[in-house]
Amino acid sequence: MKFSTALAAPLLGALLAFSTVAMAHHGTFVSYDSAHKITLKATMTEFRFTNPHIQFFFDVTDDKGNVVHWSAEGPDPAVWVAAGWGRKRSMAALAPGTKITVTLGPARNGKPVGSGTRIVLENGDVVGPQAGE
Question: What pTM was estimated for this model as a whole?
């Protein structure tokens, strides 16, 4: 079987297009600074147990009393389920108004968003896949 250049060019183009789309979705290390994590005390406002990543929203009060609305993403729900944190348990633990301490990789652009790595409740319980650590 002969391999033609006419066939190779479109295949190479399709491969490059697919790999770019795949890498764009997984740009966590480009968007967030995981080398310089920050820890914030906050109040949950919303938790979304959705694909492809869980999302949570929380308010942080700064030293001057100003409230900053933050959002973060975490692992996909399958990782949470495998760790024993299904939708109902997660939603109950992270209900609006719940006081948390969250550690995250902040956005490199300075906006109040991040990639969440650890959520701790006011009583010291760790929520999510990191709970067993």
Answer: 0.77
